Structure formats: C-alpha cells, structure tokens
C-alpha cells in the first residue's frame, strides 16, 4: 500500500439514509472524510493535474452517492462509495468515514458513524 495520501475532510452532505422512516423522509446532514492512498511522487515532481487524482472529481463521486438514492445502513453506503472510488480512480486503498451527527439516539454525542478501509484486489497469475 502506498503511504502517500490525498485527504478530503469534513465534506458535508444532506441525504436520506437511515433505517427509520423519518430519516428517509426528512433527511439529515452527514459528514464524510476520505483518504486515498496513492503514490504522489510523480505529481510532486511534474506539478501537473493530469498526473494525480483530481479531488474535485473525487468529491463529485462521493456527492452523487451521499445525495442520491437512500441506503438503510451507513455500512452499505460506505461500501458503495469505496467501490466507486476504487473503480474510477487509480488509487491503491480508500479509507472512508461517514459520520451522522444527528443520529436518532437518545444521548449526547458528536456523531455516530462507520469507517472502512478497502484496497484494490490483487490479481495473481498461476
């Protein structure tokens, strides 16, 4: 796994994800952080956008899922986003956190959420 990473933190979206009917009807704010592990040596030397991952495009991929059709579970939403990012961009690994500050839980907290790390499948020749 590459140790360099591109970071997009604190992205805020309004979506209709959740198990409860009220969550799916009314919607709520979600906060997303993503780390994309990829070598940044070539872009660091070349100083050209085409040699790296365009984080504006990464944002749009995430936004499409966060503001798109609802998922019941954050786990499923996270899997979907990680899969999209690995499919669209030449990154080795995706670390993704989805936070739900308004989770319908009777208590005091900053957020509840999920964090996953997914890597590109390695294909081996026999």
Write a concise keyword list for the protein shown above:
alpha+beta; 29% strand; four-stranded antiparallel sheet; GTP Cyclohydrolase I, domain 2; 126 residues
Please provide the ordered H/E string of secondary-structure elements: EHEHHHEE
In CATH, the homologous superfamily goes by the name GTP cyclohydrolase I, C-terminal domain/NADPH-dependent 7-cyano-7-deazaguanine reductase, N-terminal domain
Distance between the termini: 22 Å
- The unreliable regions are none
Instruction: Give the strand order of the largest sheet, numbering strands 1, 2, ... along the chain.
Output: 1-2-3-4
**What is the helix fraction of residues, given as a range?**
25-40%
Average pLDDT metric: 94
Helix/strand/pairing class, anyone?
alpha+beta
Q: Count the domains.
A: 1
* Counted beta strands: 4
How would you describe what is shown here?
It is a single chain. By secondary structure, this protein is α+β, with helices and mostly antiparallel strands. It has a single domain, classed as 2-Layer Sandwich (GTP Cyclohydrolase I, domain 2), CATH 3.30.1130.10. Helix content is 31%, strand content 29%. It contains four helices and four strands, in the order βαβαααββ. The protein has helices at residues 21-26, 41-46, 55-66, 74-88, and strands spanning 5-15, 28-37, 93-100, 112-119. It has a four-stranded antiparallel β-sheet with strand order 1-2-3-4. The two termini are 22 Å apart. The relative contact order is 0.22. The mean pLDDT is 94.
